[in-house]
Design brief:
With 326 residues, this protein is of the alpha/beta class. The chain folds into two domains: 180 residues, 3-Layer(aba) Sandwich (Rossmann fold); 115 residues, Rossmann fold (3-Layer(aba) Sandwich), CATH 3.40.50. It has a seven-stranded mixed β-sheet with strand order 3-2-1-4-5-10-11, with helices on both faces. It has a four-stranded parallel β-sheet with strand order 7-8-6-9, with helices on both faces. β1, α1 and β2 form a beta-alpha-beta unit. The longest helix has 22 residues. It is elongated. The protein binds 6-O-phosphono-beta-D-fructofuranose. The site of 6-O-phosphono-beta-D-fructofuranose has 10 residues, from loops.
Amino acid sequence: MKLFKRIGVLTSGGDSPGMNAAIRAVVRTGIYKGIDVYGIRHGYQGMIEGDIFQLQATDVANIIQRGGTMLKTARSKEFMTDEGRKIAYEQLCKQGIEGLILIGGDGTFRGAVEFFKQFSIPAIGLPGTIDNDLSGTDFTIGFDTAVNTAVEAIDKIRDTAEAHDRLFIVEVMGRDAGYIALNSGIACGAEDILIPEVMTDIEQVLCKIDYDEKRKKTVHILVVAEGDDFGGANEVLIRVKERFPNLDTRATILGHIQRGGSPSYADRVLASRLGYAAVNALCEGRNQSMAGMVNQEVVFTPFSQVQKENVLLCGDMLEMIQVLAT
Ligand code: F6P
């Protein structure tokens, strides 16, 4: 058992719904264990700037239901340099921070790996990103909410598509992974789903539209992942308009709407369980590992082994999508 007097917590990279619930769990578990918990604003950038302040249990009241992050976040270019990381370490020493909880995505863990090559301070990570693109956890904090947000938006778009007999191409986030597209597409009954993990055959996509047109299926929703190999919604739109100039076609890019909003119950529970486990793990002497949830159990993966992970297509999922969209 390691005794900590003072630990720091930060959120880094793109914000994701549930980060606040994770901060709350970290702060309250730390205080319960007699540890002073300090918030670091703006992720690694705040570490460099020494933007560090003490958090009381009441400071994290009324945040479990809020999107964004009360600690603010950033993607720090300075932290990618040896000099930046050195200043960050000096700031931690100056403030007496003896352990860290890092909440973020793959950039956060890549930064951590570089930092710990140079400096030694116990740290545990939590997977916080809407993209769900990390190994070592079934789900990342924020993914469930982001998919629900996309589903709600696409359902609304379907109403308009139906009313006007229109074809809609909807682009969702996910960087270079297709988790949000695949899951929101299935949940909305999309006619086609384009994800980076499956090479897009645009001819096949156009043939399907043609087939649906001929059999008078007037509503067509195509969900495209922003990282698809063919391109995003605008690229697909050009090809659809070229081939079907008489079709009423629109492209919608959902964008950052998917990052905000009140976290779903699933993200709140995931964030609470992982935040609680992370502080306990730190006290048990675990170090430089990310806490993830696999089959409902908390597991730890060394930062160096946390990989960017793309969609693993199980069984006949692609065939299922085509069959259900007929
Ligand atoms: O990683 C989360 C994410 O929202 C990605 O899905 C997206 O590609 C990227 O961040 C957008 O980043 P920014 O907010 O910096 O434009």
